[in-house]
């Protein structure tokens, strides 16, 4: 079972869900019972949850795919991708064994792009440096 995110009831998540593709990375979408969630493949190659906590400023690597910024980090035998600068945030967990993470976020970015972008990732060179006191 895929657990719903804390803000899964956000109406903007419904807009994302309506736009999700039937297939991702060659894996067919299958039914989930939790609100604002989706899964592709059996066993799951990719799992999406809309309504997760939006990340704040971070040094986590960020990639921009089709106009959507995704934070990416390896989590054991999976990759975890979380949208950056959009609320509600979307989380995608991708199995390393089943499909490439870049393929998945490329195919999902169109659906996620419906969420308004409020911030964007910047490179280290463009970041504002602050001290421990926030100055």
Describe, in plain words, how this protein is organized in 3D.
The protein is built from two helices and eight strands; from the N terminus they run αββββββββα. It is α+β, with helices and mostly antiparallel strands. The protein has one domain (11-116). Strands 1-2-3-4-8-7-6-5 form an eight-stranded antiparallel beta sheet. Strand 6 and strand 7 form a beta hairpin. The protein is globular and about 45 Å long. The mean pLDDT is 92. InterPro entries: DUF3515. This is DUF3515 family protein. It comes from Sediminivirga luteola.
Keywords:
135 residues, alpha+beta, 8-stranded antiparallel beta sheet, 2 helices
State the share of residues found in helices, binned by percent: 10-25%
The count of strands amounts to: 8
Q: How many alpha or pi helices?
A: 2
Largest sheet: 8 strands, antiparallel
What is the rounded Rg?
Answer: 15 Å
User: How much β-strand is present in the residues?
Assistant: 25-35%
Q: Roughly what is the average pLDDT, rounded to an integer? A: 92
Which word captures the global form? globular
Element pattern in H and E: HEEEEEEEEH
Distance between the termini: 44 Å
Number of domains: 1
Query: Major sheet: order of its strands?
Result: 1-2-3-4-8-7-6-5
Structural class: alpha+beta
Point out poorly predicted stretches: none
InterPro entries: DUF3515
Organism: Sediminivirga luteola
Protein name: DUF3515 family protein
């Amino acid at each position: 079972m895929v657990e719903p995110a804390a803000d899964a009831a956000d109406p903007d998540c419904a807009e994302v869900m309506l736009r999700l593709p039937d297939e991702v990375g060659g894996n067919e979408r299958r039914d989930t019972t939790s609100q604002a969630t989706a899964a592709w493949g059996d066993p799951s190659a990719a799992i999406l949850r809309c309504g997760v906590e939006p990340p704040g400023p971070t040094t986590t690597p960020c990639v921009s795919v089709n106009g959507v910024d995704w934070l990416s980090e390896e989590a054991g035998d999976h990759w975890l991708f979380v949208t950056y600068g959009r609320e509600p945030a979307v989380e995608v967990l991708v199995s390393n064994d089943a499909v490439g993470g870049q393929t998945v976020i490329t195919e999902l970015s169109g659906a996620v792009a419906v969420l308004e972008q409020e911030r964007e990732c910047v490179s280290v060179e463009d970041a504002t440096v602050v001290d421990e006191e926030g100055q």
